[in-house]
Design goal:
3-stranded antiparallel β-sheet, 7 strands, globular, 10 helices, single chain, 4-stranded mixed β-sheet, about 45% helix, binds zinc ion, alpha+beta
């Protein structure tokens, strides 16, 4: 039986961990070798032949009985996938105040959480596109989720006692929010995306999305008045990780990179 894999916002981190530590109990999880193959290609810049060799080495190291001849077709698939796709790494997504305000009008807290999770998830799906040949990507400003994302959405919303069927039932109540494509296409388009966002909020903490939900949807306690910050460079709003943070996550990364380059150049001069 195939186990359903859950959506990862940072496959790079997942892959690095597996590559360095292997699998628990020395049992190869075949659904994860795709990640390992992509990690090897991205990290070492290997072409097809060396990549295939290293993937086989990795599998043999995990399982002495791994037989590359028996698994030849599977190995080919792993390598092909690694040559065509990158590892997903989503550091942040943005939502707009208008999108938040639309969801805020909903009365049920449970539904609000689910719709917020859907909003974030649809943006992550789009940003996390991992095709290497970007020229073949269709560009559209539509956002979608799939029915097979439902378990991930429920997980993000931290809801227990909610099944995928429950979620489907809830979504049908908000027919102005979504377009449901025929069941066989398994696709839902979000109709409340702000195509001209004026006020933007950056979201980074996907492991604890309901923390961001609390800040955006619930009354902020007076002792935490400064939890939302405004970037001193681009003026976007972001959720602060520390009190001293002055720039949005994207600009923090750029500034840090510049700092490191300056430091390296100084080392060279000395
Ligand atoms: Zn910024």
């Amino acid at each position: 039986m195939r186990t359903k894999k859950s959506f990862s916002f940072d496959e790079e981190k997942d892959a690095e961990k597996i590559y360095n530590n292997g699998f628990a109990n020395g049992i190869i999880d075949y659904s994860k070798i795709y990640l390992v193959a992509k990690y090897i290609r991205q990290t070492f810049g290997y072409g097809e032949i060396r990549l295939e060799r290293e993937v086989i080495n990795f599998c043999k190291k995990q399982d002495k009985n791994f037989n590359p001849i028996v698994e030849a077709d599977t190995i080919k698939k792993w390598v092909k996938s690694a040559l065509n796709y990158d590892l997903r790494k989503i550091e942040s997504i943005t939502v707009s105040q208008k999108e938040i305000d639309t969801i805020k009008k909903i009365k049920s807290n449970k539904d609000k959480k689910l719709l917020f999770a859907i909003l974030v998830f649809s943006k992550a799906l789009k940003k996390g596109s991992v095709k290497r040949d970007k020229s073949k990507l269709k560009t559209s400003d539509n956002y979608y989720i799939h029915y097979n994302n439902f378990t991930d959405i429920i997980r993000l919303a931290r809801l227990t006692n909610t099944s995928e069927t429950d979620l489907a039932d809830i979504l049908y109540n908000y027919h102005t929010f979504f377009t449901f494509y025929k069941a066989e296409r398994e696709l839902i388009r979000l109709e409340f995306i702000d195509k001209n966002p004026k006020k933007i909020i950056i979201i980074t903490d996907f492991n604890n999305l309901m923390h961001s939900y609390g800040i955006l949807f619930e009354v902020i306690k007076p002792e935490y008045p400064k939890i939302l910050g405004r970037c001193s460079i681009c003026d976007k709003e972001f959720i602060k990780k520390s009190n001293r943070q002055r720039t949005c996550p994207e600009h923090s990364i750029i500034l840090e990179r510049e700092r490191k380059t300056r430091w390296r150049n100084r080392q060279k001069e000395n």
